[in-house]
Amino acid sequence: MEIKLNRWTKSDIFRPEVLEKIYNDGSCSFCHYTHPWETNGPLPGCPSGFVGMHESYYPRGMYDLIRGIHEGIITEPTEKLLEIVYSCNGCGQCGYVCPSMEKLPKPNEIIEEFKAVLVKLGWGPMERHKAIAEAVKEYGNPYGEDPIGKEGWMDSKIKNRKKGDVLFYVGCTSALREKQMVTATAQVLDKLNVEYAVLGKEEICCGSVLLRTGQVDVAIETAEKNLKAIESSGAETLVTACPGCFMTMSRDYPRILKENIGEEIKIVHITQFLASKLKEVEFKPFDGTHTVTYHDPCHLGRHGGVIEEPRKILKAIPNLQYIELERSRMNSFCCGSGGGVKAGFPEKSIKVANERLREIKEAGANAIVTVCPFCEKNFKDATDEIEVIDLVELVNRLL
Ligand code: SF4
Ligand code: SF4
């Protein structure tokens, strides 16, 4: 059977620099691990390979599959092929350690494009991911819920703040699933005397989950609607509570949209905003007895470059006993939730979280602070032994 590749797949995934990368791969296996001289390792770095326990689940195995399609050897989708490709969390560790030339795309970028090719071929994504795209198209959020639910945490005063210099972009998961994070962020902004605007039921999904699962066309439509809603606020600064929204709007929108959101509006994550105000605030002493560590969400740290700001905030809290993990900063190990894996294969997500929790326990921490609704949910699903603390909720309590 001959696969009719459309123009998009030919012009993108099989473009010369991708072919150069996948046909001349160094096969060094660095992408299995953390950076060899930045950690006391190498330690497991790729969550997909860690759980899959086979070369196919690492970038090289994915390249074999892409070559197979390119050469017409793989002519139809199998359950196994989809399972392998959609096991990639998109965590970016392989992109960080891969020593191939700068001009070539990173392994994680190629795998994300591969997911988009599978969608274009009609082979992917997983059924659960298709349902998410349908929900975003109909309701503007991946949970298929009435958009009015996004206003559930607001009083009438907040609801009416439609315009302002600072826009608080709440995000679907925070607004609909982790409301305590939203309330904490809003209260922290109030304590800092920030008159923020909100979009409420007009706020549209940022499209992160759609891009991560290869559903690029729906992601672009969604991003365009989102951009219009954001522009209606007249804001100069957009503060996001969710690392996924932050990365998608700051890194992906300039790439997928004709208009560059970042030229008109400065996009910052709440931890960057808070870190810039540290001189103006004084925290009460830490009210727990835990030894605390920080988990870098992949979208915020490795992808977004926001690494020191959360640590600066934690270090400004008196009496907080803090330890650093071996796999931290650019070598942080994924929580297991990203890339649509939690939706497609929840049991894989839990296995990855357990590996991270093992490291945390062995390091001597009994509480993990992070700042991502997906990481927090996945860790909470995986453990009752380690306390999972949201950084902004902690800040709100101690301000
Ligand atoms: S992005 Fe992460 S999960 Fe995917 S192949 Fe690279 S290291 Fe593995
Ligand atoms: S993708 Fe990069 S790190 Fe992985 S085997 Fe190939 S050259 Fe090495």
Summarize the entry for a quick read.
This protein is α/β, with parallel strands linked by helices. The chain has helices spanning 7-11, 16-23, 47-52, 59-70, 79-85, 93-97, 107-120, 127-139, 156-159, 172-176, 179-191, 208-212, 216-232, 243-256, 261-264, 270-275, 308-315, 341-344, 346-363, 373-382, 391-398; strands at 166-169, 196-197, 237-240, 266-269, 291-294, 321-323, 367-370, 387-390.
Note down, in words, how this protein is organized:
It is a single chain. It is built from 21 helices and eight strands. The chain is an alpha/beta fold and about 400 residues long. It folds into three domains: about 110 residues, Fumarate Reductase Iron-sulfur Protein, Chain B, domain 2 (Orthogonal Bundle), CATH 1.10.1060; about 150 residues, no CATH class; about 120 residues, Glutathione S-transferase Yfyf (Class Pi), Chain A, domain 2 (Up-down Bundle). It has a four-stranded parallel β-sheet. A four-stranded parallel β-sheet has the order 6-5-7-8, with helices on both faces. Helix 20 links the parallel strand 7 and strand 8. Helix 19 packs across helix 20. The radius of gyration is 21 Å and the shape is globular. Bound molecules: iron/sulfur cluster (SF4) (2 copies). The site of one iron/sulfur cluster (SF4) has 13 residues, from helix 4.
